[in-house]
Amino acid sequence: MIVGLVSFLSPSSRFSGSRRTGNANFGSIDGERVTQDDYSDAQREVYLRYFLSYGTWPDRDAKRTEFDQQRETYQWLFLIRKLKEYNIQIDPVSAARAGDEILRNFGRGNPVPLEAFVQQVLGGRVGAEDFERYLHHYLGIQQLVSVVALGGQLVTPQEAQFLYVRDHQELSVQPVYFSASNYLAEVPLPSPDAVAQFYTNEMSAYHVPERVQVRYVAFEMSNSMAHAEGQLTNLSELVEAKFQELGTNYVRFAKTPAEVKARIRQEFLRERALADEQKKADEFANTLFAMEPVQAGNLAALAETNGWKTQVTLPFDEENGPAEFDGGPNFAKEAFKLTPDRPLPEQPFVGEHAVYLIALEKRIPDEILPLDQIRDRVAADYIYRQAVLMARRSGQDFVRAATNGLTHGRTFGEICAEAKVKPVVLPPFSLSTRDLPDVEDPALLNQLKQMSFGTPVGHVSDFSATRDGGIALYVQQRLPLDAAKIQAGMPAFLNLFRRSREQEAFDLWFSKESTASLRTTPLAYRKQSEIPAGQAQP
Prior knowledge:
Blueprint: H1 2-8, E1 28-29, E2 32-33, H2 36-54, H3 58-65, H4 69-85, H5 92-106, H6 114-121, H7 128-148, H8 157-168, E3 171-179, H9 192-201, E4 207-208, E5 211-220, H10 225-231, H11 235-246, H12 257-289, H13 297-305, E6 311-312, H14 331-335, E7 349-350, E8 354-364, E9 367-368, H15 375-407, H16 412-419, H17 442-453, E10 464-466, E11 469-478, H18 483-517, H19 522-529
Antiparallel strand pairs: 1-2, 3-11, 4-9, 5-6, 5-8, 7-8, 10-11
């Protein structure tokens, strides 16, 4: 397999497909113009990098991972230019080995033909030539990181041991939670005047932003599922390979291997079916966008001619998008760009279960909901706010009483019993703890860490507010750290810490250099336009 890839990835190999030309302005990097081909090639590489990292495509998952296609593409182009500047080149054998490892991962340790990988795994969304460039650039960037961040690797063993002990020393603490739900029954029903005053003070909470409605045609993936299954002739092998790649992590997705494999199978079929429907949507869009004059009614007229059904969404805002379906990460943002003079978007949208073509139906101005329409909601909000305040006052009173009681020799248990609160027993944890039973919210775990490691042993912490009340805790004991554990964990920790320092050094270099190099690209212009009016530019 490596021999075949070496031949394919040799510098003399070239993709024989057509190149694109155009007059679009993609800016310049360090005085060198970015062509449309440069941008398109880099864009497919960052899409491939995303797929290899997450197992899915960014147009499906970008909202969750905060993937910004333009930003990622220009940053990738910047790094490619730096590879040339530092004269970093990857030999074909190294690239072939890296490619072989990727293909074997998808083949459960067995070689997967590159053509099959491109067509069946990548679905033809990026090509073999993109895979070639990606391997060379990815490996080159790893070398670039080592070169520019060399100083970050300098960490003494003494410094590393101090940091290891700091991060792994465990504390035994007892938190006490003060929640608004325990005080709701104590809040008296508010008077009409109190509700009205609360509404006036919190009017911004009842603001409904501008909304739009769009008419749409949905090219449902269900229409192509049977065809997709016929295309994927080796579907069972692909499913098994992906399952093996997950290893023991499969339990994150389902309880049993059979359930996980069923989900993987469905995902392969879904990707292929969506690709088939996107081709249909593109053909429809080409006809739609060519119709003159350009108007919103063209969508319904063309759909009726072709036997397609159109529907109108409920009003939706730019942040949340339509309630009826998931139109993809850019759907709502692009829908809000539509105007009566520009009622159609530039392209279809690939959603969770369909591909959508839309036209502006209606814009609805923002408004403050009148009190008479939401009086019960405002009253409930008032009661909850009062319960939160009561919980926080109780927590602050408890901290004062506990501090005074500990000073006079009373135990924390006695203090809690007298205050009629129940401390929670948590397992010991350290700054490096990532998961803790009964603490599912990562933000709460971080809050507990800050409180615990900022409080001396034998003392109660300051009261710390939360959204629904607050927390106080007692630091009972600092547990000794076994010397053998330190010795056993130090090599891996030192290596990880050096890599972290190296990454920090690279990030500083990258921030400074990329800001200067990308200042004449659309990315820089976009950032400037996003600065609020009246705010100074950096």
